[in-house]
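RESIDUES AND SHAPES:
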Amino acid sequence: MRKILIRFMVLVLAGMGAGSLQAAPIVGNLSVEFKGVPQGFQAGSTTGDIHEPRLKTHAAEDGWVSGVHAGMYRMTLGTGRDSVPEEDVFWGQDGDFNAFCIQTWQVLASSQNLRNDYSLWSLKGYLGSSIHGSDEQWAEATFSEISALFARSNLVDEDAGSIALGATAETDAAFQLALWAIVNEWEVSDADKLSFSGFGDAVHNDVELWVGETRNANQVAASLDFYVLSSATSQNLLVWKTATATEVPLPATLWLMLAGILGVGLARRS
């Protein structure tokens, strides 16, 4: 009986640890409504070119995609939002929310039918999932840089020197490009290695400045909770809300260690 109890407790603790390691969406079957261009952008958008050979349906032979809209989306969460846990509600009145694209190798579907199957992930879960190769070290570094980028915005800091999201199309475009640069590890300083062009000098200068600051050693985390709306048929979207205090779960490695200690202890007593 004691041996059965030992095995049971070890399996329970190991299972709790394994759950901490696995990435999974919070909820699925969400629909996202988009009003098109320019109404679907908070302050309008700026167009230019990006180098994204993975977007095969739109890229030229050299991998460049032209006429790309960069800006901050203004969207509405339609059906399915009642299934989202209260602590993860990121939208405002009538389901409206702002978002940035976090995926350059997929376009935002023009058909509503292709925008009816979104899943909601935590940003950390999304970055650590198989969608991005499950690279834990990359996921942690990328999350920190995204958080540091948002920490410089008026969503967190209302000082005059902060990035005023939603104020102008150029500012929102620069922020979108900075986010893409972080996720895709784009070069932002060397003119011969840039993965974007044609958005204007002011936009490029802001991207170079903001990304450079997020990549330094003195990162400041934003007091925001980040999520990703992910779809197999439409562009993945980064969304956010004011951070809420939550219990910090024990790391998976600690659960596994506890399982081993408990198992050894019970085994010796038997």
About this structure: The longest helix spans residues 2-21. The helical segments are 2-21, 123-127, 136-151, 169-184, 201-214, 252-269. The chain has one domain: 2-269. The chain has a mean pLDDT of 86.
